[in-house]
Design goal:
Elements: E1 6-12, E2 18-23, H1 26-37, E3 44-47, H2 57-62, E4 67-72, H3 80-92, H4 94-97, H5 99-113, H6 123-131, H7 134-141, H8 145-190, H9 192-209, H10 220-228, H11 238-246, H12 249-256, H13 260-289
Helix pairs in contact: 6-8, 7-8, 8-9, 11-13, 12-13
Length: about 300
């Protein structure tokens, strides 16, 4: 099962600039805070409201979503001035601080309009809705807490299925890579000169494919996901999938530091994932149109939260 991400807000001791960060553990939060705040390790994380040091994993996991942290560099210490700075920071950036709350409400409204939007959401969006307190989500959706619990369980199942699919693809890639390595060893043993020429061709192709200076319209966050996530098409929402498909293959390869063949394979995977999601949405809409004129997917008929084995 995928580790749950906790939405947090971090800032430097004397700086008003704050950043939203999602982390599944305290170590990951420290690493991401160092990155977004440009602070050298090691750092100490303290609660922005009172300076409580957060160095225990269990304590971190008990904190509510959107907890605000101050990152202290090696020789820095929290003081009441940090609190004053934090108050000023909050008053000057209310919209940004509340962005996490506004985000889940926007996502909830999407589900209120059409539950099939679950299929089109990114993994991050799904996790945001899972982490919302049940009572607050029930109030926003105008549904009972029992039905919202079923909904959140369903969201978790969707998230779990994507992770399982990612792991399955990784195993398949490892198997295919092992076959490729075995074929390569046999080929080199039989035809060493041909294998050497083939290797030179691959090097030449890789060099030429990265010479392009074209750029893409993809955000840094999406590019990072494409480079670092296994089966990245599973973690993107449908809009980002469309942007990847619209990107020029050569420009995409240049931005990712890949050859065109690998970038083309990524676009093909994104195309398949987007087509699958749209087909699922179309199927739900078709079923809805035949259900005695009901305009929305009935909450009472939402599938059981128990997964079939």
């Amino acid at each position: 099962m995928a580790a749950r991400l906790k939405q947090c807000v971090v800032r430097r001791r004397d700086g008003p600039e704050q950043h939203g960060v999602a982390a599944s553990c305290l170590r990951e939060l420290r690493d991401k805070a160092c990155g977004v705040l440009a602070i050298d390790k090691p750092i100490t994380l303290v609660l922005a409201e009172d300076g409580t040091i957060v160095d225990d994993e269990d304590y971190f996991l008990c904190l509510p979503p959107n907890t605000k942290f101050v990152a202290l560099a090696k020789d820095e210490k929290w003081s009441s001035k940090s609190l004053d700075s934090g108050t000023s920071w909050l008053s000057e950036s209310v919209d940004e601080v509340d962005s996490a709350a506004e985000k889940w409400k926007q996502l909830a409204r999407q589900l209120k309009d059409d539950l099939s939007n679950i299929i089109l959401m990114s993994e991050e969006d799904l996790q945001v809705l899972i982490d919302v307190p049940r009572s607050e989500l029930a109030e926003e959706l105008a549904q009972s807490e029992t039905k919202v619990q079923v909904l959140q369980d369903t969201l978790q199942q969707v998230l779990d299925r994507r992770e399982e699919e990612r792991q399955s693809r990784q195993l398949l890639e490892l198997y295919l890579e092992a076959l490729k390595t075995e074929d390569s060893i046999l080929s080199k043993a039989a035809e060493p000169e041909a294998a050497a020429r083939k290797e030179m061709d691959v090097v030449d192709t890789g060099t030429s494919s990265t010479d392009t200076s074209a750029t893409t319209a993809l955000s840094d966050q999406v590019l990072t996901a494409l480079k670092e996530k296994p089966a990245p098409e599973l973690c993107l929402d449908s809009q980002d999938l469309e942007l990847v498909l619209k990107a020029d293959t050569a420009a995409l390869a240049s931005a990712l530091g890949w050859d065109k063949q690998k970038a083309g394979a990524l676009q093909s995977a994104c195309d398949q994932e987007l087509s699958k999601r749209l087909q699922q949405v179309q199927t739900l809409h078709s079923l809805r149109s035949t259900s005695k004129g009901k305009k929305t997917l009935p909450w009472g008929d939402w599938p059981s939260a128990k997964r079939r084995k």
